[in-house]
Amino acid sequence: MTEKALAKRNGIDQAAILLLTLGEQEAADVLKHMSTKDVQLVGSAMAALDGVTREEVAGVLEHFLVSIESHTSLGVGTDEYLRKVLVSALGEDRAVSVLDRIFGGRSSRGLEAMKWMDPRAVAEMMRSEHPQIVAIVLAYLEPDHAAAVLAQLPEAVRPEILMRIATLDGIQPSALNELDEVMEKQFAGNASSKASLFGGPKVSASIINNLDSSLESKIMQQINGVDEALGAKIQSLIFTFDDLGSIDDRGMQELLRQVPGDRLLLALKACEQELKEKVFRNMSQRAAEMLKDDMDSKGPVRVSEVEAAQKEILAIAKRLSDAGTIALGGKGGDQYV
């Protein structure tokens, strides 16, 4: 097999071809271990693939030391295949968000470019924009990236921006294209007739979940002061570390299998005793005793370190929830987030 067949395919294209040769579950298992940005890159390449020849497939498989004797050409039905794989890997909500960026983002290159920019640079670009424009941009970004951008914006505008995100229920393609022109001075593709899904209380809550705890409480106080009903709606969707106590024992055991011991030790330094006891109950007796000993012998640690560890564990819990592995009980009782 010569390199000629793969000459026009870069590394991302080859990764996309490899995933398309796998079954949906196997591809989903691979994607679970990739960052959101990498999923978007490979997903975009998968969606764009067309008429991949058997020779190219064989070349990719040979390159990755995988042996497949026979496979038909790719490029047929890849959109549906990609949707199923992403839903399996990321859960329905995250998959919809990623797919919206892959397919809808083809006509939004300016906004797409902002996902790769440093949060400070994005905040600087947004500083003179109307809060509604800032809200749309942050709703388009991933929650952790949006939170980092929000933290760089003036304190006075943060609550208003989050409230505007919470009340967004869509944006027309024509408006999105106009915004894209402003951001990138480019217009790409024709808009579909369907409005893109942006915003809502859940998006605001996701962004707030990624903020430092001090900023989170301050912003929520300000939002409640302006619109108590909206604040309550957002607050009901914000999931804190202590709320992990609502996970059933089976879910807690699955979560603990995914959490590194050093991060768990740090996270438990500042949480409700009830949650600590639940964690200990869902570990083996020996593991629980070792963890208690380590916590007793651990000296003082910075609050910021504890909060960072708690956020990492919350991110793992949300990933497992999105995948349907565990259920996160919301503050509203029977709700799930």
Layout of SSEs?
Layout: H1 11-21, H2 24-31, H3 36-48, H4 54-63, H5 78-90, H6 92-103, H7 109-114, H8 119-126, H9 131-140, H10 143-152, H11 158-166, H12 173-184, H13 201-209, H14 213-226, H15 228-235, H16 249-258, H17 261-267, H18 273-281, H19 285-297, H20 303-322
Helix pairs in contact: 1-3, 2-5, 3-6, 5-6, 8-10, 9-10, 9-11, 10-13, 11-13, 11-14, 13-15, 14-15, 17-20
Observed structural traits:
3 domains, 20 helices, mainly alpha, single chain, disordered C terminus, Annexin V, domain 1, globular, 337 residues
Question: What report would you give on this structure?
Answer:
By secondary structure, the protein is mainly alpha-helical. It has 3 domains: 88 residues, Annexin V, domain 1; 127 residues, Annexin V, domain 1 (Orthogonal Bundle), CATH 1.10.220.30; 82 residues, Flagellar motor switch protein FliG, alpha-alpha superhelical domain (Annexin V, domain 1, Orthogonal Bundle). 63% of the residues lie in helices and 0% in strands. It is built from 20 helices and no strands. Helix 3 crosses helix 6 and helix 11 packs across helix 13. The C terminus is likely disordered.
